[in-house]
Design goal:
Elements lengths: L7 E6 L12 H10 L3 E6 L5 H7 L6 E2 L16 H7 L3 E4 L2 H6 L4 H13 L3 E6 L3 H5 L3 H12 L9 E5 L13 H19 L7 E4 L5 H8 L6 E4 L6 H13 L1
């Protein structure tokens, strides 16, 4: 599938940031999303803000930053797919490097979460990415390929599967992979997806994440097989997020 056959997706990951007062930013984000009709836009605030964000987002899909693989049970502090859907969530991020590192999530756990989310009909963004040491050792493609193999379900018939490539060394650091680095890795990811899923692998959107901002968005979106972005800090305000949406619309 040609890159132009896949709509760009720009998803904001608020991480552990935000408040009810900050939801006022959603009005301008929604206005920009309506103007950029060729782009899909979504925002993933903390669990506590999902329901309120849905009522303030002006039709922009709201998602979550994690889910549990089980539907219910003795899992203190966890949130199920059904709970997310009841709150109004349309998508979920799983396997972010911060959860892999801080909560010691394994590929198998990420895969179980992705399976549950897809079965529940949520668009599911599965994150992969290498560390600085792994890249410097020349193992970046190998590492990401292994994460894909272990984190993606073999089959799905529910929600849409999306992959987000986020080099760990570029997340929140201000450093961004070069267009060559991004093209090289996204090409490798696309090859792995099509080898595993055939034609369906060509329909899976691959997002880039890692210090995406207004100043570099257009350059990143111009790279083949970059089907959008998973945006961290720059998604917290309309002033920073809207130009990224506009860059996606112009790509």
């Amino acid at each position: 599938m040609n890159v132009h056959d896949r709509r760009k997706l720009v998803a904001g990951n608020w991480k552990m940031n935000g408040s009810l007062a900050q939801l006022k930013e959603l009005a301008a984000i929604a206005e920009a999303a309506r103007a950029a009709a060729s782009v899909d836009v979504a925002v993933c605030p903390p669990f506590t803000l999902i329901s309120a964000a849905v009522t303030r987002a002006g039709g922009v899909p709201v998602g979550a930053q994690d889910c549990h693989a089980r539907g219910s049970g003795a899992h203190t502090g966890c949130v199920s797919v059904a709970m997310l859907k009841e709150a109004g969530a349309k998508l979920v991020i799983v396997g972010h490097s911060e959860r892999r590192a801080d909560q010691h999530e394994t590929d198998a756990e990420v895969r179980a979460k992705a399976e549950a989310a897809l079965a529940g009909g949520l668009t599911t963004i599965v994150c992969v990415g290498e560390s600085e040491a792994e890249r410097e050792a020349g193992r970046h493609v190998e590492v990401v390929a292994a994460q894909l193999a272990g984190s993606l379900p073999d089959h799905w018939s529910g929600g849409e599967l999306v992959v987000a490539y986020e080099p760990i060394w570029a997340i929140g650091t201000g450093r961004t992979a070069t267009p060559y680095d991004v093209a090289d890795m996204h090409h490798a990811i696309r090859a792995a997806l099509t080898a595993r899923f055939g034609d369906a692998g060509g329909r899976i959107r691959i997002l880039y994440g890692g210090s995406v901002k207004a100043e570099n968005a257009a350059e990143l979106f111009a790279v083949d097989d970059v089907d959008g972005a998973l945006v961290g800090g720059a998604s917290l305000t309309a002033a920073q997020f809207v130009p990224i949406i506009q860059a996606a619309a112009g790509a």
